[in-house]
Write a structure and sequence with these properties.
Length: 426
């Protein structure tokens, strides 16, 4: 018995289990902390302002993987323990603000957007340090503040009388991927439909590779947030409705781009459940959606291919994947600096291709790879992607990140999703 115990302790130390567990409990309390920020600026400048700090009841993320090793996102924050002067948590993310900065409007008018980040609730005083990528793709500090978790002004109010349903449950949120769906544009009498819609979306997600490989570690929650009116805003049709999180089509003047800047209300509702990623499900049959890395994904429920759009948007929101299409009505300006490697896992400028999927390209495939039938269903380097026709390359002729005709994610996107799920479920 004694020998077994010693062996068991050696195993725990060797696996890093003991260190990481005690590390979490040493630095963090129950629940999570939410920092609300305003990101303001134009196409060339940005300023970050602190709005609020909140204590939320759950933490749905990993207790093991606290330091972000994935190097994804346009921004990254660090939680630095003040006494230890050491990072105890970090995470990359992207913003609607940074996307807006590449639109023509940002050349002529400064604007501000809400942004929120969450992390496990620290026990002691810490430095909240935010970094933004510069034109060379290198992170640079852009905002720093000290936060005392014991400050009595930290807000604690919660959304009240909101029903939360477990749609899929596979156990402990800290070791599972928890997807929380927020109801948007469903009136109180339509919330049963919302639950059915979430169930349909979750079922179709679990049929898609690689999500089907993780069936036993995905939890799905439905937060039944009622709206006064049904549907969503459609400015092109002069349709304006009062809904739970104020979503709208025609974001950045793109008709099918469905988004909302009301991330504060989204987070208030999401806090009703433990979660890794938020999906806003919109009660509409119009085609559209959006997804921003570690921000949230949003999609309509009732278009004929809503399930496919949902999986595509989750590729953006959960795994930081880029669009692989390049002929569209989306006209962002200077979205990529072609002289540096983009951070998105499924795009390359070939500047540092060895950091991407080079080792997966068969030796006899030309780089760039011509768009020919014989390379269909093969990994290659195909020109065009990320809304850019020239100088940006994608891994496959077709992929869920390229078109709705694709049956699956390409192997490079699949691998990026696997990596994210493993990081969140350890
Ligand atoms: Zn997309
Ligand atoms: Zn792909």
């Amino acid at each position: 018995m004694k020998i077994f115990l010693i062996n068991f302790i050696i195993f725990l130390i060797a696996s890093g289990c003991l260190n990481a567990q005690s590390g979490f409990d040493l630095h963090f309390n129950k629940g999570s902390m939410r920092v609300d920020l305003a990101f303001a600026g134009n196409s060339t400048t940005q300023s970050i302002y602190l709005l609020n700090v909140k204590h939320e009841p759950y933490w749905g993320g990993s207790r093991m993987n606290l330091i972000d090793q994935m190097n994804l996102g346009d921004y990254r924050f660090h939680i630095i323990d003040k006494n230890l002067q050491d990072t105890i948590y970090s995470r990359g993310f992207s913003t609607l603000f940074d996307e807006w900065r590449t639109t023509p409007e940002a050349l002529s008018v400064p604007k501000a957007f809400h942004q929120t980040v969450t992390f496990p609730y620290p026990k002691d005083c810490f430095i909240f340090s935010l970094e933004a990528r510069n034109q060379q793709g290198v992170f640079e500090p852009c905002f720093t503040t000290e936060i005392n978790p014991k400050n009595k002004n930290i807000k604690k109010e919660q959304a009240s009388n909101i029903e939360v349903q477990r749609i899929l449950h596979n156990g402990n949120p800290e070791q599972n991927l928890d997807l929380v769906f927020i109801a948007e544009g469903y009136t109180a009498s339509q919330l049963k439909k919302f639950e059915q819609d979430v169930h349909r979306m979750a079922t179709s997600l679990l049929e898609q590779t690689p999500f089907n490989e993780f069936k036993e570690c995905i939890n799905v929650w439905a937060v039944c947030s009622p709206s006064d009116e049904e549907g969503t805003d459609i400015p092109g049709k002069k349709k304006w409705v009062n809904t739970a999180v104020n979503s709208s089509f025609n974001t950045f003047n793109i008709d099918r781009y469905l988004e909302t800047e009301d991330v504060i209300n989204i987070r208030n509702y999401a806090a009703c459940a433990p979660y890794d990623h938020i999906i806003v499900l919109v009660n509409s049959n119009k085609y559209g959606g959006g997804g921003i890395y570690n921000h949230f994904s949003i999609v309509t429920a009732d278009h004929a291919i809503s399930e496919k759009v949902f999986v595509h948007e989750l590729g953006h929101g959960l795994a930081g994947l880029a669009d692989e299409y390049y002929t569209s009505d989306v006209a962002y300006e200077n979205f990529f600096n072609l002289s540096v490697e983009p951070w998105q896992p499924n795009l390359t400028t070939l500047v540092e291709f060895e950091k991407k999927w080079k080792n997966q390209v068969p030796a006899n495939h030309p780089i760039p790879t011509p768009n020919q039938l014989k390379y269909q269903d093969q990994i290659g380097v195909f020109e065009g992607g990320g809304h850019v026709k020239k100088g940006i390359y994608r891994p496959a002729i077709n992929c869920r990140m390229k078109s709705n005709e694709a049956d699956d994610f390409c192997p490079v996107c699949q691998e990026a999703i696997r990596k994210t799920i493993l990081f969140l479920t350890d």
